[in-house]
Amino acid sequence: MVKICCIGAGYVGGPTMAVIALKCPSVEVVVVDISVSRITAWNSDQLPIYEPGLDDVVEQCRGRNLFFSTDVEKHVAEADMVFVSVNTPTKTRGLGAGKAADLTYWESAARMIADVSKSDKIVVEKSTVPVKTAEAIEKILTHNSKGIKFQILSNPEFLAEGTAIEDLFTPDRVLIGGRETPDGQKAVQALKDIYSQWVPEDRILTTNLWSAELSKLAANAFLAQRISSVNAMSALCESTGADVTQVSYAVGKDTRIGPKFLNASVGFGGSCFQKDILNLVYICECNGLPEVAEYWRQVIKINDYQKSRFVNRIVSSMFNTVANKKIGILGFAFKKDTGDTRETPAIDVCKCLLGDKARLSIYDPQVTEDQIQRDLTLSKFYWDHPEHLQSLSPGTVKQVSIVWDAYSAVKDAHGLCILTEWDEFKTLDFQKIYDNMQKPAFVFDGRNIVNVEKLREIGFIVYSIGRPVDAWLKDMPAVA
Ligand code: NAD
Ligand code: UGA
């Protein structure tokens, strides 16, 4: 029986290993983590992350060939193949702060693998890392190897949160990078043998190590760039009377461009797009390519612009002051079908509104009160450095209340903002909502999910990103 150990039981390690265990009954998979609370949750009925279909997969294999443990060293020592899926956040201090990837967790995992190993191993980079990380890891492992042979593979993960299980069941591609030596190719084949138990051969791509590492950063940069492109267009649509949904539909009909990932929004969030682009920018700078670095930096600048444009629309529409006004916030997660709030645009929008002294009533079906208060009070540094979190209790923002249904969030409110595209927001009874709001009643749709005409008929003043603006809003210019 092949033994796999995965270091890091997070959004990637947990679901990825659960699917490997499900599809490969002859492989034993142990997911290990230094976080006791995470492992306890993986072993309970309340999994630490919300992901459609995940409960079912875990239920089928946990205790059979899927295990979760905090005994990191024991399981690493016993494994034939070790996946490393630890967090690789943006550095917050030191050289490259604000851009470079912080590889502290990665390096400590690599040193631990070298320390505890007593047999040859294949070490698989699952985390997203800068190009050439495999080389650094290889050095750490071989210099501490005591004669043991290690082969390093890069196997970046392309799943998206909210659709992780679907993405893992039927991936567009699986990418495996390895050394172009006989031993390197043997290791590539061993990993290929795992995936080929459910992924068609033509979807398993093999490359050299550096191409695999860079392809992951490139894929995220291309995806984020599409969103910034359509968001940049949304600003022009508002100024010209064009409708961004019609423009992106027309553009996406070109088969060379395609229809996906062209929804204008309040901005992209999630733990990776910004982090990975910053990392790419840093790598370009380090390689003497400032023009290329600047090109990719623009993707983030437009994203920041889009978030502040949204807040400016809210404040300027509401007579240039939101002080003491109740604003209902529908959705806090960075996208639907996840409880993840890392880099969610909701944090920036809410913080700006709080800065202008608004009172916020927030509802999200999957994000806990504790998480929202943490996000609004603690610096985002702590989310990526959970070892510091235990010693900190979040503050409580007095102007914020967290409620458990959309109607309570917007009752007696002056305005409502949709910040996550949860399906349940598409079918709300907006007449009922209007009747219970202060007048004039404002809707700010950061996800383009409401029927603008219908809401205007009810009496709302509606701002929907990139759509023709209300006469009311035309008189209140959006400041950049
Ligand atoms: P995460 O923060 O959810 O999980 C990482 C886990 O690693 C944490 O639970 C942490 O406690 C654990 N850890 C850190 N150091 C450890 C050590 N030395 N030993 C044992 N456990 C350790 O992160 P994530 O979202 O799963 O992302 C992991 C990597 O995958 C990142 O590089 C990310 O860029 C990449 N990625 C993420 C996604 C996503 O959708 N979240 C998708 C593709 C790739
Ligand atoms: C993204 C990529 O899609 C994955 O392939 C990649 O593996 C992952 O990052 C990663 O490396 O972490 P994820 O961030 O989970 O996945 O979710 P996406 O569906 O890509 O959405 C990211 C953000 O963009 C969300 O805030 C979403 O609302 C926003 N978005 C997406 C738009 O604003 N418009 C769109 O058309 C699509």
What layout of secondary structure does this protein have?
Blueprint: E1 2-7, H1 13-23, E2 27-32, H2 36-42, H3 54-61, E3 66-69, H4 72-78, E4 81-84, H5 104-116, E5 121-125, H6 133-143, E6 150-154, H7 164-169, E7 174-178, H8 182-195, E8 204-208, H9 209-240, H10 244-252, H11 273-286, H12 290-317, E9 326-330, H13 345-355, E10 359-363, H14 369-377, H15 381-384, H16 386-389, E11 400-402, H17 406-410, E12 415-418, H18 430-435, E13 442-445, H19 452-458, E14 461-464, H20 471-474
Parallel strand pairs: 1-2, 1-4, 2-3, 4-5, 5-6, 7-8, 9-10, 9-12, 10-11, 12-13, 13-14
Helix pairs in contact: 1-3, 5-6, 9-11, 9-12, 11-12, 12-13
Bound molecules: nicotinamide-adenine-dinucleotide (NAD) and uridine-5'-diphosphate-glucuronic acid.
Write a structural description.
The model has no long low-confidence stretch (mean pLDDT 94). This protein is 44% helix and 14% strand. The chain has helices spanning 13-23, 36-42, 54-61, 72-78, 104-116, 133-143, 164-169, 182-195, 209-240, 244-252, 273-286, 290-317, 345-355, 369-377, 381-384, 386-389, 406-410, 430-435, 452-458, 471-474; strands at residues 2-7, 27-32, 66-69, 81-84, 121-125, 150-154, 174-178, 204-208, 326-330, 359-363, 400-402, 415-418, 442-445, 461-464. The protein is an alpha/beta fold. The strands form 3 sheets. A 6-stranded parallel sheet has the order 3-2-1-4-5-6, sandwiched between helices. Bound molecules: nicotinamide-adenine-dinucleotide (NAD) and uridine-5'-diphosphate-glucuronic acid.
